[in-house]
Amino acid sequence: MSVIDNLNSIQQTIPQGVTLVAVSKTYPPDIILEVCNAGQRIFGENRPQELVQKHEQLPDDIKWHFIGHLQTNKVKYIVPFVTLIHSVDSLRLFKEINKEATKVNRKIDCLLQVHIAEEESKFGFSEEELIAFLQLDEVKSALNIRICGLMGMATFTDDTEQVRCEFKSLKTLFDKIKSTFFISNLEFKELSMGMSGDYLTAIEEGATIVRVGSSIFGERAAISKN
Ligand SMILES: *Cc1c(COP(=O)(O)O)cnc(C)c1O
Question: What is the reported pTM?
Answer without folding.
Answer: 0.96
